[in-house]
Amino acid sequence: MTSQGDGSAGQHPNNTSLPPLDVRKTRSPTADESPETPGSILSFRPASPSILASRSSTLSGFLSRSSSPNGRSSLSLARFGRSTTASPLANVADSNDETRTLIVRAFSPVVGVLASPETDELVRGKGLKHGFAGFIQPYGERITGKVVVRDSVGASRAWEDFGVRFLDLRQIMQEQSTNGAETLDKLEDLVEQYLDQHTGEYVSHGQNEMSPYYRLFLSRLLSSQSVSQHETFSHPVATVIAISSSTAAPIETLRNLYAQTAHGGFASPPYANPEYLRYYVLVHDDDKDDFAKSSALFDQMKRHFGLHCHLLRLRSVPCSRGDEDIEEMPLQEWLSASADLSKLQETTQLIDLDTDTQPPIFATDAANIRTFIRELVSQSIVPNMEQRISLWNEQIASRRRGISGRFMSISKRWGGLGSLTGSSSRNSSATNLSTTSSTSGNYDSIQGYYRWDTPEALLRKMADFTTMLRDYKLASSTYDLLRSDYNNDKAWKYLAGVNEMCCITNLLNPLLSAAPTSSSSSKTLPKLETFDSMLEAASYSYLTRCNEPALALRSLLLTIELLKVRGRLPGELASKWAVRVLDLNLAPQSSNLHVLISERIASCYAGNRPSTATNHTSAVVGSGAVLSQRTRHAALWSLTAAEEWMKLGRAPFAAANLQQSQDLYAELRHNEAAMSGFKEMSAFMHDLSLTVRMKLGQTRKRGVSGVSATGHLVEPGYADGDPLGVGADDVEEQMETLDSKPSGGHRRGLSINTAVDVQGPLSPIRRRSVIDDPLAESNGVVDDDFE
Amino acid sequence: MSYYFVVVSPSDTPLFEYTFGTSKAGGNGQAHFRNGESSRYMNQFIVHATLDVVEEVQWLSPNMWLKVIDNYVPTNSHISCFMTGTNVRFMLLHQPSSSGTAAGSRASTLSSSSIAQNPTSPQTEEAIRQFMTEVYEIWVKTLMNPFYKIGDEIKSPIFRTRVAAAGRKWL
Hints:
The complex is a heterodimer of chains A (about 775) and B (about 170).
Chain A: H1 3-10, H2 20-25, H3 49-64, H4 73-85, H5 88-106, E1 110-115, H6 117-125, H7 131-141, E2 147-150, E3 156-159, E4 165-168, H8 169-174, H9 180-197, H10 212-223, E5 236-244, H11 250-263, E6 277-285, H12 291-305, E7 309-314, E8 326-328, H13 337-353, E9 360-362, H14 363-401, H15 403-422, H16 428-439, E10 443-444, E11 449-450, H17 455-468, H18 472-489, H19 492-508, H20 518-524, H21 528-545, H22 549-564, H23 568-583, H24 592-607, E12 620-621, E13 625-626, H25 631-647, H26 651-667, H27 671-677, H28 679-701, H29 723-739, H30 747-759, H31 764-772, H32 774-786
Parallel strand pairs in A: 1-4, 1-5, 5-6, 6-7
Antiparallel strand pairs in A: 2-3, 8-9, 10-11, 12-13
Chain B: E1 2-8, E2 14-21, H1 39-57, E3 65-72, E4 77-83, E5 89-95, H2 104-107, H3 122-143, H4 157-170
Antiparallel strand pairs in B: 1-2, 1-5, 3-4, 4-5
Helix pairs in contact in B: 3-4
């Protein structure tokens, strides 16, 4: 009996040339994958990303529903808006880009700041208590204008969103690596606090987009990495040494501060490269001091320290809201978890006092700082990094890559072996000595690091530099080169890091991302098994050998995000690893992180569906069944997330996830039948939605969200499938697409379609009978409808 | 090892459900799912989710026996599937006993390849295949019953006892 549906669908695998009426006919989920469907019809597809994206409006509609029955009319409206203005492909790319941008920007250079006490004093006098470093921090994240970077082959690329991260040098050098578990605890605290602040309404997001809380969590996780030996992203690329015009003996102070960075209290640890750029800044106090004097001093500075100098003019009087020409200090986006926690505490106190959180700044000051940072980055930091990269690339990497380099490494390995066999006649301690010396040449296995000037460390530094400058091709090949070295030396943390970065840079490489379809990605990208094994190596080394759960989590989550948007097979790998994250217990049970990751798994599975037109190769087989959909998995994980949110007592979030889950289940072909058959399953769904709504009702009565939803709290039919809601929704959808058609046929014809489709999604059999005998049935329906 | 066996119709309705435990290695045939009470609905959810994979794998394999096609990590459940000619799916969810460490003394006497401990070993796979084949035969005989309407739930007590016997025999 059920093969009927398959049969009717199979007859029309390609419905492009059919007239509109027939398009309606194939609108069953069984045949919606026809690749060349015109754009207007895309809006029907259950799997079309435009609908996924517009699911965001479902959530908001769900939460703020006021008059429309269960808030679905707003959804259908949103569908039209999205499907007509933006193509579904663009939508996918948007959400993809957002994640990508986040990850790309996370790997931005760190610039240390070392200011003389007078400079900090000057800034504090302005009412900014974090000193000079805290003052320029937010401006470094967004550099005005484009920054041009030349890659290793000499091609320049301009980046709009280039940024650097200013950090107090004291903070960098003294806050040595915190324990990874501690970082995770802090992140959990942070997410908890943010969630508490936003209990009122759920900030909606679509299935393919990232939940804002997950995004927050990810960015905090990325910026919470402390200085570590195995990667150089948190080592300063340059240091700004600042004095002010009121500093007595300025040149001596500068020398003194330099000495502190070189071999004083803030010297680099032995694994961090101390040969970084120093940039000297003279902060001129516009209100108190004489500019002629400062400019003479600046000339002197230039003579002493060369070109890397800047004269920054700032006003020292505090700025108040009433003044003219002021602007708010921008919000700092990249904060470590602990910094954000302390900031949250400060601001909650401030909110109690009813003052504004972002202090005002004179517009001239802001403009001066922007110019200063722009000059610092585009004229000093970037050229310096480029030069280093080309130097190291020539001296170390290309020598290693060449044939002789291969021979070198082979002979090194065989040399070790040879000495082992040669010394077999001697006693065992001698052979032990020879083997250790041959494997761990530069690696200090007791302290666990390479000195900064060993080729391995320099190569890693070079690869990190290229990552920061976004030349991912060179970066990934360099990381790949390093993998075998670290493996031979049993430098586990280095090995994990290099595996992680190899995955990430390979996936970030824009040349490879040009074709996101599953068929071509296997050609351009390295094989998926490679990613699988690299991830395995990275997570195993981080977790088991180095006890660094935060780093393991970072490597897995980033790779998942990047794999997820690469099409079908990579998407499957992403889902597999996302489940693995939970299995590895990186996020403790019943924590907010756990739920956020569950949500992410759901979105991995949901994003896995062949939702774009490019994916049709895998889609149509046999009777028109769609291959490799993971709708049920996605729905299950959404439901899991809903249940977990409920356990944490966050009903709005649970409601949103439940809605998502129900939408996904409703997309299924045989949802009704399955739900009526699997009784415990539907009973559970029903119970959960009841509890969610009761809880929501309570919070609403308490007036937290301020949304009145009187009628819906007791509406029982809502839980399973919601037949009427879906039907009504579809009617509107049909009307819209029909209107957009040029033929403009009879109104009568239109109503046939709508009437047919009201019943359409509910029972394929009934629809089929309509199709078989269109005249008789349509007459009947039309009469019913109109009279 | 605990088992949840379900026959799913082409329209995703369960035609027959049966929950049982292993009878080998001292098992008493009772199911002990590690997620306890919630396993009643979770197993249904998991098996239902696996239909996603079935719909994909069925086109890739010429066999009716599809082997272990999916697993659900949080409860360590593995799902095997056997397809009949009319797209009726026999789904078997199997979950190794949770007492891997708690009853280690008893479990240590079992070899790692025993059915109860290792859900992906070839022995387990073979046992499940035998079970599926036997159930298939019983099922075909049930279909021949003139009073059974195809697509209806299977209510026959004889079918149930026979499936139970097959479960005891192989699993």
